[in-house]
Design goal:
heterodimer; A: 112 residues; mainly beta; six-stranded mixed beta sheet; four-stranded antiparallel beta sheet; 0% helix; B: 114 residues
Chain lengths: 112, 114
């Protein structure tokens, strides 16, 4: 069965520092991969997605993610974190966009 | 363009009452999804529709939950009778199958059952 694991429940970084959020998936084929961000009291906003092609994908707000088939990973990165990036981040895997499974989420705290 | 619209944003009700959550998908989107988010279980898919027809309701927790999509512009999720364990944030999302596989989420309805 497809599943997605986000090993880090909570991460704290200093403003201006780099960020990497981990995501590992289990799936029989190459899935569609997504990163969403949820600010407090808000819905989920799509940051970026990978369907095929270039394994390094760029998203909004300066985020990028790299698909590594050999490691079954799709880690999210940002070179310099801003205080406004504090939020919860969800990795999701899906087949044809319907049967999507979300990770448990990683809560990001940004220290001034 | 307006995104997915959900109402109400917050609902507080007493155990045993009927609760109705509403969703207006993005115009032109042919898929609609209902999710529930709790601390214990994270984000769970409850049910989804394609062209107003329910396709998979295997995530609906029990018979107290029902969802309908009478037309392309509206869906509702009903809980009758409600129980305290139904307290959660309920999200609606929609997707345009002709333009990719991305689901677009509404702001959610925070339900509290006392």
């Amino acid at each position: 069965a497809q599943s997605v694991t986000q090993p880090d429940i909570h991460i704290t970084v200093s403003e201006g520092a780099s960020l990497e959020l981990r995501c590992n998936y289990s799936y029989g084929a190459t899935p569609y991969l997504f990163w969403y961000v949820q600010s407090p009291g808000q819905g989920l906003q799509l940051l970026l997605k990978y369907f095929s092609g270039d394994t390094l994908v760029q998203g909004i707000k300066g985020f990028e993610a790299e698909f590594k088939r050999s490691q079954s990973s799709f880690n999210l990165r940002k070179p310099s974190v801003h205080w406004s990036d504090a939020a919860e981040y969800f990795c999701a895997v899906g087949l044809r966009g319907n049967d999507m499974r979300f990770g448990a989420g990683t809560r990001l705290t940004v220290k001034p | 363009d307006a995104g997915v619209i959900q109402s109400p944003r917050h609902e507080v009700t007493e155990m045993g009452q009927e609760v109705t959550l509403r969703c207006k998908p993005i115009s032109g989107h042919d898929y609609l999804f209902w999710y529930r988010q709790t601390m214990m279980r994270g984000l769970e898919l409850l049910i989804y529709f394609n062209n107003n027809v329910p396709i998979d309701d295997s995530g609906m927790p029990e018979d107290r939950f029902s969802a309908k999509m009478p037309n392309a512009s509206f869906s509702n999720l009903k809980i009758q009778p409600s129980e305290p364990r139904d307290s959660a944030v309920y999200f609606c999302a929609s997707r345009d199958s002709g333009r990719g596989d991305t689901q677009y989420f509404g702001p959610g309805t925070r339900l509290t059952v006392l």
